Structures are given as structure tokens and as C-alpha cells.
């Protein structure tokens, strides 16, 4: 079969863009498509995990990011009766509107890209994926073939659905709700609030620039599957708590409150098949304790790009050959996700350990239930 491309990637977020860059750098022909047009917003907490920065530095993108609007702040954890401040641990916050566009623009210099392309179906030949079909935002139909298709299209991945690998978030997931505020007295830090009403989830307050803060709440399936649950109501209840009520008195909500689902990692699952793989949120690679997924999306994208660059140079793109991708991802993350899930379960009521002690374990313990978090391992240029 004569293919249009070696590799075709559905979804231009961090997972898809990073996959495209690493694959194309190995000399293969790559097409990256997204249903949106960039820049576009992505509902998120906007925090960029430290392990993502190493990839940006490797791709000479870190300085470009630091030239764009962002903040670089220390961290603060709160419970009702205690707090923990980490002034030496720094984290980067940048709106996804800006961050994702940076990555997509970088991918453009390595691969062909198409914006406004909505993928509706996959092409199959003898049971093996060999391309995509869909419609552009101008109403035109398209059909493109490739040796391998990558599903980097998020929680509701079309690729995962069409190949029978979609896992409903309500089985093992979370829901997050975000709002932007101004005129909020800010501590100038990334703030995490583990309050009893939200456990095992948390409320966050992250500054994104000198005037704006990202405020949101993360709720796990143990909460949001309950009848009558509303993440927006939970957010408002927490903002009206004695710890935060006065602080939000003069705060101005800038836009509507928005929510989204997070496909949490729980145990190793199938993330590949004949002629296709899944990366990032489409593969369910979201941290099951804190709910972040930018770092795992980018790292799985790097793994995918490096492996597929070699595989596309061969003649076989079947399930057996692509097994190496799944094996590599779970070697990287399997035990890590298990530890994170165990930590989250420790926060579920009734807690046998004080929440702040669990948070300290998350931050400082290098053995036992959790691996040390690399909060201070940021590039020297920062």
C-alpha cells in the first residue's frame, strides 16, 4: 500500500505535538491534525509540571516559553488547621491558550499540520488501522492514509472509541472545575487546599499573571458519581468556607466556570493495537493523586515519537510490533501510578492519617508508599 504519510497524529495538544516533533526529527513524514484552530483554550489548572520543563529545554523551547506570559512561584499546602510552605520548590504556571500554541507552532516546523480537521472515523485494511476520515470546519471531507495512527485526542478520543479501547471516566476518573478571577488578594504562590468537604480532592488557587488567578477544584469518582453532585456547587462551597470566604469577597469572576473530565491512570491497560497507539489523556495517563497530565502527555509523546520513528522505517506496523510502546510506557509509569493511587486512597474519608502528613509523604518520602516528587528539579536556566 502506498501511504500518504508514515505517521498520522490525531490531536495537537501537548501529547500530539511532542509526538510529532520527536518522530519527525528521525526523518519520517508526519501529519498532525486537530479539530480546533490554534491558539485555542484548554480547560486546565495551567500548572506546568517540572518534568515537562526538561523536555522543553531538550527541544530548545524553554526560553521561548519564558519569553511569553507566565509566572514562576513557590508552593503552599493548606488544610483547615495546618499549612506547609515550600519556598525553595518552584513551579511554572502558564495559560494553556499560550502553552499549547507554543508546542503546536514548534510541531509545524517539523511536520505537516492541519487545523479545523475533525476526525470522524478510521480507515482499516484487513483489520489494521491505515488512516483517518473526517470533515473540515469548512464542510469539506478528507481521507488520509498512514502506516501508523496516533490517538492524541484527549479524554474522549475518537481513535480509542473506534478501536474499542475507550474507558468511561466515571469508572475511574475525576472531574475538575476551573474559573479565572481578578481582584483576589494573592499569596503569590501555587496554593493547594485539602479541606474535608473536598477530600480526597482539593481546591487550587494558581496565579497566572500579575492580575489573574486560576481557581478550581478536583473531585474524584467517589464524589462526582454520587447522586446530585455538582462540581460547581462544591467549588462555591469551598470558596465560602471560613478559610477563604473573606478573601473572595471582592474577587471578580472573569468568565464562566468550566469543567472537564480527567481519565485517571489506575492499572496498566492496552494502549495500542494493529496500526495505532494512544498517548496522553487518550491513553488514560493522568496522575491519579493530583490529576495533572501535561507531563505524562509530553513524556508518553516523546516515547511514542522515538519508538515510532524507528518502526515506521520498517515494514510491519501490527499489534505485535507496537507492543514495545505499551511496554515502555508502563515500565516508566506503572509502579509510579500505583503509589499515587495508594496515596489518594489514604485521603478518602475516614482518614486514618492526618491529611497534612499524607501530603508531606507525597512531597518528601523517597521510599515506601511514594517516590520523591521532583519539585525542585527544574532546569538551571530558571
Task: Outline the structure in words.
The chain starts with a strand and ends in an 18-residue tail after the last helix. It has a domain at about 5-70 and about 95-170 and about 265-345: FAD/NAD(P)-binding domain (3-Layer(bba) Sandwich), CATH 3.50.50.60. About 30% of the residues lie in helices and about 30% in strands. It has helices spanning about 15-25, 50-60, 60-65, 95-110, 160, 220-225, 230-240, 295-310, 320-345, 355-365, and strands at about 5-10, 30-35, 45-50, 70-80, 85-95, 110-115, 115-125, 130-135, 140-150, 175-180, 190-195, 200-205, 210-220, 250-255, 260-265, 270-275, 275-280. It is globular. By secondary structure, the protein is an alpha/beta fold. The longest helix has 29 residues, at about 320-345. Residues about 365-380 have low confidence and may be disordered. Strands 3, 4, 5, 10, 11, 12, 13, 14 and 15 form a nine-stranded mixed β-sheet that branches. Strands 1, 2, 6, 7, 8, 9, 16 and 17 form an eight-stranded mixed β-sheet that branches. It contains ten helices and 17 strands. Strand 7 (about 115-125) and strand 8 (about 130-135) form a beta hairpin.
Amino acid at each position: 500500500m502506498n501511504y500518504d504519510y508514515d505517521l498520522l497524529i490525531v490531536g495537537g495538544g501537548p501529547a500530539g505535538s511532542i509526538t510529532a516533533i520527536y518522530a519527525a526529527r528521525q526523518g519520517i513524514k508526519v501529519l498532525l491534525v486537530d479539530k480546533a484552530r490554534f491558539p485555542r483554550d484548554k480547560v486546565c489548572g495551567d500548572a506546568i509540571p517540572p518534568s515537562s520543563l526538561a523536555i522543553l529545554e531538550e527541544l530548545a523551547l524553554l526560553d521561548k516559553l519564558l519569553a511569553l506570559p507566565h509566572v514562576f512561584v513557590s508552593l503552599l499546602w493548606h488544610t483547615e488547621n495546618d499549612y506547609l510552605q515550600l519556598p525553595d520548590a518552584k513551579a511554572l504556571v502558564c495559560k494553556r491558550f499560550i502553552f499549547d500554541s507554543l508546542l503546536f507552532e514548534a510541531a509545524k516546523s517539523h511536520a505537516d499540520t492541519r487545523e479545523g480537521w475533525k476526525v470522524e472515523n478510521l480507515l482499516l485494511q484487513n483489520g489494521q488501522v491505515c488512516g483517518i476520515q473526517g470533515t473540515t470546519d469548512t464542510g469539506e471531507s478528507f481521507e488520509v492514509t498512514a502506516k501508523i495512527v496516533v490517538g492524541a485526542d484527549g479524554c474522549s478520543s475518537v481513535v480509542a472509541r473506534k478501536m474499542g479501547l475507550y474507558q468511561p471516566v466515571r469508572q475511574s476518573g475525576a472531574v475538575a472545575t476551573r474559573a479565572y478571577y481578578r481582584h483576589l488578594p494573592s499569596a503569590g504562590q501555587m496554593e493547594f487546599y485539602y479541606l474535608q468537604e473536598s477530600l480526597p480532592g482539593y481546591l487550587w488557587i494558581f496565579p497566572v499573571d500579575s492580575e489573574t488567578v486560576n481557581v478550581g477544584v478536583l473531585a474524584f469518582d467517589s464524589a462526582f458519581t454520587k447522586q446530585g453532585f455538582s462540581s460547581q456547587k462544591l467549588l462555591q462551597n469551598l470558596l465560602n468556607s471560613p478559610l477563604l470566604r473573606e478573601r473572595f469577597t471582592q474577587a471578580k469572576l472573569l468568565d464562566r466556570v468550566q469543567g472537564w473530565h480527567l481519565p485517571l491512570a489506575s492499572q496498566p491497560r492496552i494502549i495500542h493495537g494493529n496500526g495505532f497507539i494512544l498517548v496522553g489523556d487518550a491513553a488514560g495517563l493522568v496522575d491519579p493523586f493530583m490529576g495533572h497530565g501535561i507531563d505524562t502527555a509530553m513524556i508518553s509523546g516523546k516515547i511514542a515519537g522515538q519508538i515510532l520513528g524507528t518502526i515506521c522505517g520498517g515494514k510491519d506496523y501490527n499489534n505485535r510490533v507496537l507492543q514495545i510502546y505499551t511496554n515502555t510506557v508502563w515500565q516508566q509509569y506503572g509502579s509510579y501510578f500505583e503509589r499515587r493511587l495508594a496515596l489518594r486512597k489514604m485521603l478518602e474519608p475516614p482518614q486514618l492519617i492526618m491529611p497534612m502528613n499524607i501530603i508531606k509523604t507525597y512531597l518528601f518520602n523517597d521510599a515506601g508508599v511514594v517516590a520523591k516528587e521532583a519539585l525542585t528539579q527544574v532546569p538551571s536556566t530558571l
